[in-house]
Amino acid sequence: MNRQSIKGLVQPDRVHRSVYTDPALFELEMDRIFGRAWLIVGHDSQVPNPGDFFTTRMGREPVIVTRHTDGSVRVLVNRCAHRGARVCEAAAGTTREFVCAYHGWAYGTDGRLCGLPLPQGYERPPAESTGGGLASVPRVDAYRGFVFASLAAQGPTLAEFLGPLRASFDDFVERAPEGAVEVAGGVFKHAYQGNWKLVLENHNDTVHPAFVHASSIWAAREQPAGEGYSEIGVRQMLQNGAPWDVWENTGLWVAGYGHSWMGDYHDDRRLVAALDHPAFAEYRAALERRLGREGVARVLGERRFNSIVYPNCSFMSQFRQLRIVHPIAVDRTAVHAYSFRLKGAPEGMFRDTIAFSNVVNGTGSPILTDDLEVYERAQSGLGARRSDWVYLGRGHGQDVPDPGGALRGGTGTSEIHIRNQLAAWLEYMTAEA
Amino acid sequence: MAAATSVETRSEVEQFLYHEAWLLDHGRLDEWLGLFTEDATYWIPLQASQSDPLTASSIVYDDRRLLEVRVRQFQHPRAHARTPAPRTVHQISNVHVLEAEGELRVASTLVLLEYRQERQRVWGARVEHRLRRTRDGLRIAAKRIDLVNSEAELDGIVCIF
Questions:
Q1: Domains of chain B with CATH codes
Q2: Do both A233 and A357 map to the same domain?
Q3: Which residue, among A26, A319, A5, has the nearest Cα to A172 in the 3D structure?
Q4: Which segments of chain A have a pLDDT < 70?
Q5: DSSP summary character for residue B2
Q6: Count of A–B CB contacts within 8 Å?
Q7: Is residue A22 situated within a structural domain?
Q8: B75: nearest CA partner in chain A
Q9: Greatest pairwise CA separation for chain A in angstroms
Q10: Which terminal Cβ of chain A has fewer Cβ within 10 Å, N or C?
Q11: What ipTM was reported for this prediction?
């Protein structure tokens, strides 16, 4: 498909269904979007010491993220320079080198070839013929501990790419009494039979909870109040049933490169640290030691729910959750969901985080499973050939400029974030290489 | 330990587990919920050999209250992920009474066939029940289901194990 015909697929308030269903477009996306954009790969705390590593994917590219002996974070393609086998099978660990199972080629944590059998059998040094070792992802950078990499050698800096969305990462980290967060508590890996864009479009969609989550909202409303482990989860289900005026008045902002974030719709004192529930007293005191009283009010007063870094990240700074989107095929997507510990916060805060994650991101969650079901229905419906267009007109023409360098939806129920994602999609897909 | 378990106890436990499976395979979720004690937990760990449900995430970790919410949700007409509800067959085997003093600790293996929306899924799990003797007979104080593929990339889970 040529660039001119791709241009016709995204219009101001609608998008062609093939953007979600065409395998050829998906292949182009892997090159032009996932092959160019900054992609989040993880967090500093997953590789605290030299030799630490974890494996993940950038789009479909299998990679190893390592902490090299010089302290730098490297992102290496998980593919032996010799015959192409993966050299690392572990999800995470610590090592001095990666040794290929096939013929024993060995690589350092910077990817450099450091050993192979029978070196005398080669006409030229194998390192020369194979590019020196494991391919390195050309650009790696981090913002506030969140590690990004880009498969393209050229492009905007990470700071330019993130733009005003950096404030959401600031919010994430500033909430920790020690000013740092760490990945903890395991990784959910859920998947659905649908295009990767569906999950990113859903996270800042404030009209969907009343419909998609109707059953869990109702079930929670019928439940007598109680305390203990389940309190966080039940309260979160209840909050999804907020009335329309709350959603309408929840801020929704977009920025360059397809990013967006929403304000917060929560008013439950037990869920929101800014609202002064006694459960947060110890946490607030710990935070106050670093920030002072005014600092605490400023940091906790920053109320954001989902922030989306297009095209592969969605996180909840206030609720210590981060999701990485892994496209697998045009109609298959996996999402990995991480929880974070606020360093220096009381253990109870982390238990709240886990209780929240189970109910919001758990593969058996009463909330998430209904989202996944709806993505699959969307994918299935979009296969219908008699209708070509997906309508995205809610709030179109009502966007307002915002001083932070962003644009704000006229109301919180605008589809501005989806239009913005597709504008970025079009930009990536039609830019001359 | 198992050797000391009487034939009567083993038979009683097996019949209890079969009855639980029968309730689930017939969609009798309220009666199934009635098998649990007020302080019960229903746990599907995320990690193999996970030791703690409170400081690490779980595919499902429900106390009695969340389990009630779940069962109620499943019966709502707009429980999309359960509409239509999955049809299941629970195949229980290798029943092994690990402890018979006080609360019974019972290990079993489960193969579950789930059918929904033109798709059949097969689940395998090691299951452990803690069963308490009450005036109403045996009741479940804790149920832990270790799916063999708990760490895989999994589609949403809406059946009950």
A1: 2-147 (3.10.450.50)
A2: yes
A3: A319
A4: 433
A5: G
A6: 124
A7: no
A8: A215
A9: 77
A10: C
A11: 0.96
Close Cβ partners of A300 (under 8 Å, ≥ 6 residues apart): A175, A273, A274, A284, A287
- Residue A77 is encoded by which pair of tokens? 């393609």
Reported confidence tier of residue B1, pLDDT bands at 50, 70, 90: very low
Mean pLDDT to the nearest integer, B75-83: 96
> CA A213, A267, A279 angle in degrees (round to 5)?
110
Tell me how close the Cα of B130 comes to any Cα of chain A, in angstroms.
Answer: 20
Q: What are the φ/ψ torsions at residue B8 (nearest 5 degrees)?
A: -60, -45
Render pLDDT for B91-121 as a digit per residue (tens, 0 to 9). Answer: 999 999 999 888 999 999 999 999 999 999 9
**Pair A113, A100: CB distance under 8 Å:** no
Q: Per the structure block, which two tokens stand in for A141?
A: 């950078």
Q: Is residue A193 located within the same domain as residue A58?
A: no
Q: 3-state SS string over A192-203?
A: ECCCHHHHHHHH
Residue A130 shares a structural domain with residue A184: no
Q: Are residues A364 and A218 in the same domain?
A: yes
Let me know how long chain B is. 161
Query: How much is the pLDDT for A1?
Result: 83
Return d(Cα A81, Cα B74) in angstroms, integer: 51
Judge: B69–A226 Cβ closer than 8 Å, yes or no: no
- Which is nearest to A339 in space by CA: A364, A326, A365, A358? A358
> Smallest CA–CA separation between A177 and chain B, in Å?
19
Q: Do A233 and B66 touch (CB under 8 A)?
A: yes
- When pLDDT is cut at 50, 70 and 90, the band that residue B3 belongs to is low
Has residue B45 got a pLDDT over 70? yes
Helix axis angle, B64-74 to A214-221, nearest 10°: 130
**B3-9: long-range pairs with CB below 8 Å, 24+:** B4/B100, B5/B97, B5/B100, B9/B97, B9/B100, B9/B104
DSSP 8-state code for residue B49 = T
Q: Does B151 touch chain A (CB under 8 A)?
A: yes
Which residues in chain A touch residue B152, judged by CB atoms under 8 angstroms apart? 189
A205 and A288 inside one domain: yes
* Gap between the Cα atoms of A359 and A353, Å rounded: 10
Say if residue B2's pLDDT is above 60.
no
What is the CATH number for A295? Answer: 3.90.380.10
**Given a cut of 90, is residue B5 above it in pLDDT?**
no
User: A59: domain range?
Assistant: 46-143
> What pLDDT does residue B4 have?
67
Q: A123 with A232, same domain?
A: no
pTM, two decimals, is 0.97
Structural domain count of chain A = 2
